[in-house]
Design a protein that fits this description.
By secondary structure, this protein is α/β, with parallel strands linked by helices. Helix content is about 35%, strand content about 15%. It has an eight-stranded mixed β-sheet, sandwiched between helices. Strand 7, helix 7 and strand 8 (about 240-245) form a beta-alpha-beta unit.
Length: about 290
């Protein structure tokens, strides 16, 4: 299968023991030589992967002067695919945040206590980042969440139903095959759980007050998968949160408004990262021999 070249750095694989299985997880480091600078971990959307980000992670890390790490979660990209009979449970984002992410960081040799990572999470990845920061408040330096979900809206379900129809009747599957070794694993894992009737009660608002790190929450005014109530709810629960509301922007700010997004995120990270004590940080073992 042809693949879009990875512009952030060489792709590597980690062997991650999680949920009773051993998973081969695809990831790519960005500028690991910037020792002493914050590490920004990119968590993709419900249909994303390492290569689907294209050049955005590298460009953002350049603008912010930080290190980066991009990964494809289980079932996505070139990571181990989800078996056809396996379905994401309704609490899949909680499990990814509380179990998978710590297991992945441990597998690549990253000590989150000594080198607190920052997270850039998009959509489902933003929700996972919020849950992770609430669950491990002393192990996260800061969050940037773009189009995150904190509860389920009717419009979100309607758009996901439309995506299901498009996957069956249009070229969407062929397009996703450019970025995923098994597009059915990626698509149906995400689509089935979001359309599960039990998922309508999913809500992470009670967790949000436990977040202590800086937060920048971003939403496009034309997002077809969520309203401003998502990031307004973050601001209500997290006093230190800052909001960025973008005009002429749908569900993917890094594609729809890249310049405005880059400026805001780089300024946010630079401003807050100055207070981080980086002097005692050591890079992850895998990053020491990787070059962008």
């Amino acid at each position: 299968m042809s693949r879009t070249p990875t512009l952030q750095g060489p792709v590597q694989f980690a062997d991650v023991a999680w949920a009773g299985h051993r998973h081969r997880i695809e990831y790519a480091p960005i500028a690991p030589e910037r020792t002493g600078q914050p590490l920004l971990v990119f968590l993709h959307e419900g249909l994303g992967s390492v290569t689907m980000w294209k050049d955005f992670p590298r460009a953002l890390c350049e603008a912010a002067g930080c290190r980066g790490l991009v990964l494809s979660r289980w079932g996505y990209g070139q990571s181990s695919p989800r078996e056809g009979h396996e379905k994401w449970p309704v609490d899949f984002m909680h499990r990814q945040a509380r179990e998978f992410l710590p297991a992945f960081l441990e597998a690549i040799g990253h000590d989150a206590a000594a080198d607190r990572p920052w997270f850039y999470g998009h959509s489902d990845g933003g929700s996972i980042a919020l849950i992770h920061a609430a669950s491990f408040p002393d192990r996260v330096g800061g969050l940037v969440v773009a189009a995150p979900h904190i509860f389920v809206e009717d419009m979100t379900v309607a758009s996901i139903e439309m995506a299901r129809d498009g996957y069956v009747t249009t070229e969407l599957r062929a397009k996703l095959a450019r970025y995923h070794a098994d597009p059915d694993s990626a698509f149906w894992g995400w689509n089935d759980v979001w359309l599960d009737p039990g998922f309508r009660r999913w809500n992470i608002e009670p967790l949000l007050p436990q977040i202590r790190c800086p937060v920048l929450a971003i939403q496009g005014r034309d997002d077809e998968y969520g309203t401003m109530a998502q990031i307004d709810g973050i601001a209500d629960a997290v006093p230190q949160a800052q909001l960025l509301k973008l005009d002429d922007c749908g569900h993917s700010p890094h594609r729809d408004q890249p310049a405005a997004l880059m400026r805001a995120v780089a300024a946010f990270l630079r401003g807050h990262a100055r207070a981080e004590p980086h002097s005692n940080k050591t890079p992850a073992k895998t990053g020491a021999t990787s070059h962008p």
